[in-house]
Specification:
There is one protein chain. It contains seven helices and five strands. It has 239 residues and is an alpha/beta fold. It has a five-stranded mixed beta sheet, sandwiched between helices. A hairpin with a 2-residue loop joins strand 4 and strand 5. Helix 4 (123-144) crosses helix 7 (214-227). The longest helix has 24 residues, at 70-93. The relative contact order is 0.13.
C-alpha cells in the first residue's frame, strides 16, 4: 500500500485532483478480489473504466492461496473475477469501458491443462498461455456485453523495462511509462467509442488469431467460472 500511496500522491501533485483513493487488492486471491469489489461498491461511486493490469511470473510452479497455479490465478482468473464482480457497477454507470492488458507474447494454450499438471511447467509457456487467455476472455466478455453501454477490448502495452520482462529472459525494452499509452487511449479516446471485442497494439487495431476461436473462448469462460466459484458454491455470474 506504500507504493500505491506514493503513486496517488504523485497523481495529486501532477493534476491537482485531490480526490484520489488508492485501494489494495491481491489479484491472486479470490477472497481479496471479492472484498475489494464489495468495498468499492460500498463507496457508492460510479465506475467508468476498469483497466485489468496484472501479471506475475514464477521460476518454478507455485500455487495461490486458493491452490491454483499462481500465474494462471493472477494473470487470468484475477482479471475474470474482478471484472465479473464489478460488472453490475459498470453497467449501471452508463457508457463504460473495460481494458484488458494482454500481450503479443501469447500462445501455448492447453485448456485441458491450464495449471501445468500434465505438462512440464515453464515460465515462458505459462506466461504466454496467460496472456493468450486474456485475449480469449476479452472476446467472450464482449459477446456477452453486446447491446450494452459497456465495451471491452484488450491490448499489447509494449515490451517494457520491468522485472517481469527480465524474469522472462528478455532485456531489450522501452521505458515503463510507454506501457500506459495504448491502455489510456482505449480507456479515454473518442476514436474507440463503441468499439468492443478488439485487440490493439500501439493504438492501432490488430488482427488476432484468437478472435474467431469461439469454442475456445466459451470453454475458457466456463472453466474460469468453475475455478472462481465462491466457497458456498453460489454463482458469481453477472453476464
Amino acid at each position: 500500500m506504500v507504493k500505491g500511496k506514493a503513486v496517488a500522491d504523485e497523481i495529486i501533485r501532477l493534476t491537482g485532483n485531490k480526490d484520489i483513493r488508492p485501494m489494495l487488492v491481491d489479484l491472486s486471491s479470490q477472497t481479496s478480489i471479492r472484498q475489494f469489489a464489495r468495498k468499492y461498491k460500498e463507496t457508492g461511486l460510479p465506475l467508468h473504466v476498469l483497466i485489468n493490469n496484472a501479471a506475475t511470473t514464477t521460476e518454478h510452479k507455485e500455487r495461490s492461496v486458493d491452490g491454483i497455479e499462481l500465474m494462471f490465478a493472477t494473470n487470468v482468473l484475477g482479471y475474470f473475477l474482478l471484472t465479473n464482480e464489478l460488472l453490475d457497477v459498470l453497467r449501471s454507470t452508463g457508457d463504460t469501458r473495460i481494458v484488458n492488458i494482454a500481450s503479443e507474447y501469447a500462445g501455448d494454450v492447453d485448456l485441458s491443462d491450464v495449471e501445468f499438471t500434465r505438462r512440464r511447467f515453464n515460465v515462458q509457456n505459462a506466461y504466454r498461455q496467460s496472456k493468450a487467455c486474456n485475449r480469449l476472455l476479452t472476446y467472450a466478455f464482449a459477446r456477452r456485453l453486446e447491446n450494452t453501454n459497456t465495451t471491452v477490448n484488450c491490448c499489447h502495452p509494449g515490451v517494457l523495462q520491468t522485472n517481469l520482462l527480465y524474469n522472462l529472459g528478455l532485456n531489450v525494452a522501452d521505458p515503463p511509462a510507454n506501457g500506459a499509452v495504448t491502455p489510456v487511449y482505449l480507456a479515454t479516446s473518442a476514436e474507440v467509442s463503441g468499439i468492443s471485442g478488439k485487440f490493439f497494439v500501439k493504438k492501432k487495431l490488430k488482427s488476432c488469431l484468437y478472435e474467431n476461436l469461439i469454442e475456445d473462448q466459451e470453454a475458457l469462460f466456463r472453466l474460469a467460472e468453475h475455478m472462481t466459484q465462491p466457497p458456498n458454491g453460489s454463482s458469481t455470474e453477472n453476464v
